[in-house]
Specification:
Elements (H helix, E strand, L loop, with lengths): L5 E5 L2 E6 L2 E6 L14 H12 L10 H14 L6 H42 L1
Antiparallel strand pairs: 1-2, 2-3
Helix pairs in contact: 1-3, 2-3
């Protein structure tokens, strides 16, 4: 479901948010928020749809989540006898999860950049 832009303005400052993204911009006046008038509306809607398809991380949003997953692997080394085998399995699994997250994000980014390029080209016509 698309979330609409919400804008709060003060003199010289424009603060807006779109979903979880928030930004404050220092301006000479209020910013016009929304698609530029000279771009193809269908291409702009496609770009918004691509943004909403941004993949979620499998482990979490912060570096701390990834570090905890790796730390668990090192803590598993403390288990007598089977610790090395369990830790190797855990760390291999975490490596695969991280690699899959990176691949999914890179693919999405390429598609999103292509979508933005189409929006820009449609405005140049």
């Amino acid at each position: 479901m698309a979330t609409s832009f919400q804008k709060d303005s003060l003199i010289g400052w424009t603060r807006f948010r779109h979903g979880d993204f928030q930004c404050t911009v220092v301006t000479d006046g209020p910013l016009k928020i929304g698609p530029p008038a000279n771009v193809d509306h269908d291409e702009f809607v496609r770009a918004q749809w691509m943004w909403e398809r941004r993949p979620k991380s499998l482990l979490g949003k912060t570096l701390l989540d990834y570090l905890i997953a790796i730390l668990i692997g090192f803590v598993l080394l403390l288990i007598p006898d089977a610790g090395i085998l369990v830790a190797c399995c855990w760390l291999s699994g975490m490596f695969l999860v991280i690699a899959q997250t990176v691949v999914r994000f890179v693919r999405w980014r390429h598609q999103y950049e292509s979508s933005i390029a189409r929006v820009i080209r449609s405005g140049a016509k």
